Amino acid sequence: MERMKEDFPPAELKPLSIIKQCLDKGAYECLGLFDGEDMLGYAFLLKHGKDYLIDYLAVYPNH
Fold it and tell me: DSSP secondary structure string, 39-54?
């Protein structure tokens, strides 16, 4: 969540409790893009049946 504070304006951030609730329900997925051990970016997806909504998408500035 700390990284998200750098990547998104405060008004766009959901409370961590909401994200955790969605994860617990199996309705949220967090993905990372890696080059070996180096994380290049991440995506948070909200799942609804077979459909996905991209909730957050960020690529680290140095990549």
Answer: EEEEEEEEEETTEEEE
pTM of the model: 0.83
- DSSP 8-state code for residue 9: -
DSSP one-letter code for 26: T
> In angstroms, rounded to a whole number, what is the distance separating the alpha carbons of residues 28 and 17?
13
Question: What whole-number distance in Å separates Cα of residue 60 and Cα of residue 38?
Answer: 10
Asked whether the beta carbons of 2 and 21 are under 8 A apart, the reply is no
pLDDT of 48 > 80? The answer is yes
